[in-house]
Design goal:
The chain is an all-alpha fold. Helices cover about 80% and strands about 0% of the residues. Helix 2 packs antiparallel against helix 3 and helix 3 packs antiparallel against helix 4.
Length: about 90
């Protein structure tokens, strides 16, 4: 995400929030795996899922503002959808 943000011309909308949301996805997944199974672990997976959804929304805003090409938006959107589904499956354990 950092490379996308630094290369983008014109600059992306809400780039700081986008960077923070995207960065918190793997951080919360790692934090969750450091916890025992159950509610404590699931809470961090929920944080990661929320960050994935926020990242997707920030990307969507940039796509609508024509600051992100369709091919790149859809590739990232689909990856975030897979991450969200993965997190949902992990929380059902």
């Amino acid at each position: 995400m950092n490379a996308l943000i630094s290369r983008s011309r014109p600059r992306l909308l809400q780039e700081t929030q986008l960077q923070e949301a995207a960065g918190s996805i793997p951080s919360n997944i790692r934090e969750g795996y450091g916890r025992r199974c159950g509610p404590e672990r699931n809470q961090f997976f929920r944080y990661a899922r929320g960050s994935a959804e926020e990242t997707d929304e920030r990307l969507r805003a940039n796509f609508k503002a024509k600051r992100l090409h369709a091919k790149l938006f859809w590739r990232l959107h689909n990856r975030l959808a897979v991450i969200t589904r993965m997190l949902n499956a992990l929380m059902s354990d």
